[in-house]
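Subject: complex prediction, re-run

Hi both,

The earlier run crashed halfway through, so I resubmitted it with identical inputs.
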Amino acid sequence: MKILHKTKLSLLTIIAIVIAPALMMMNSCVESQKIAAKSGAQLWAENCQRCHNTPSPSTFSPEKWETIGLHMQSRALLTEKEKDKIVDFLKQ
Amino acid sequence: MGKIYNSVFVFQPKRFHFLLITFIFNFCFIQTFAQQPVTVDSSLLERIASLEQKVNYQRLGEDHFMMVGLTTFGFVSNKTTSTFGGVSQVSKTNSLADASHYEFSPMFLWRHGNKFLLEFEPSFSGGQLGVNWGAISYFATPGLIIRGGYLVLPFGAYNKRLAAGWINKLASDPEGVTGATDYALEVEGGFQAGSMKWSYDLAISNGMQLLADGSLQNAGITDNNKNRAITGRIGWLPFSNSSLELGFSVMTGKVGDAGSNTENVKANLYALDLSLVENIKPFQLNIKGQYSITDINHADYLNPADSSNYSFDNHTTTGYIMAALRPMFIANKILKNFELAARFGNYTTPANSLRGTKDNSFAVGLDYWVNWRTVVKFSYEAIKGTNTISANLGGTPGAVTQSNSMYLQFSIQL
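This time it finished cleanly. Structure:
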């Protein structure tokens, strides 16, 4: 009975993990105007410091920032718009 | 009609002379100026050609290959006191290179166009050469990344995001942080929902392996059965400035060896993680935490002391909370690079098992940031462990182990 309960709990959790994002994507994927208006510099300051210090734009060449942008989009699960704006800022 | 004809074609000497002079003048003018030969310095042409060639060599291609990574090096001094029945034993060690935390891990990134990214991180750590991960990612749509390979599974936030030496504020890792690296297929992405942000990360992997002492092998895993494990994490960033992130993870799958008496034994793991980064000028406050539960179904294990079977409630919990404070926004160029960090942790492994212990830890550290990706850390960590291994397994239940460590560590992102 205990095992059955745990199995059901695991199943429900997995379903929640799969279904919840799908529902949210369907219902409200639209970013607010406040979010849409954010600059690359602002997104760079807000998102990079979630894990580490904000990197200096002069650290890498524009071409390297493109590659690192993809790596960080995956690692920090940034949205594509966030990644594009941050990379454009760092490339300047 | 006849008048018009006559007025056009009647010969008029004055008009003829005017037209002739105009024609000759225009002819001479065009011949003089339009056909003027231009002389160009040949050395200038050669220089332009050379520059064109150089620019062409610097032209950006669709592919790009680069290396980043990290290295961590340091010194640790440890004193461990074990007390049981009023008798204490003391051991002291000093280790240059801090064998358990030394690491040289170059990370190779190969961007194949704008849709594919190959990541490979070999690592020399603890005197051994290994691979942290190697995977290929396909950036399918704005909210969907598909990845395959040997990768860090999305369980909790510490292993995937915070474990690197130049990111971790303290010299040591929190004790018992659960996670796994395995061959897997993964889908993940982040998306905006109004002012909030969500992320999802779901992986199907070969699955962890149950070891003889009831623990789980979480790296270099042998695929020991036909069952596949599922791991997933949902991240929620409720504030528009992304300062707070809450994550919930689950991992589930059979872990026993096929054909053995543990064939149907299943493990269910759950984790909650927290990240808060707030600029309270002139300080930056950074709080990180993670709590996880590991439940493994009932199984019989072999007692190495007398070859009898024994069992226990295979339930493990581990958690930590870390807070760091840095005066990042003050004017002093030296002081603004210091950061103070403290961490509390608890790690409780199954009582009456071969690895039963209840550990409480406290760590404190002072960091100096040489630049945004280079840090020198001075840390102190105390771990007090109470033995919960039963006597019939050769344990000394109630024995207390006090471990005190001092670290001096340097870490850099390459």
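Residues 1-8 of chain B have pLDDT under 50 and may be disordered.

- K.
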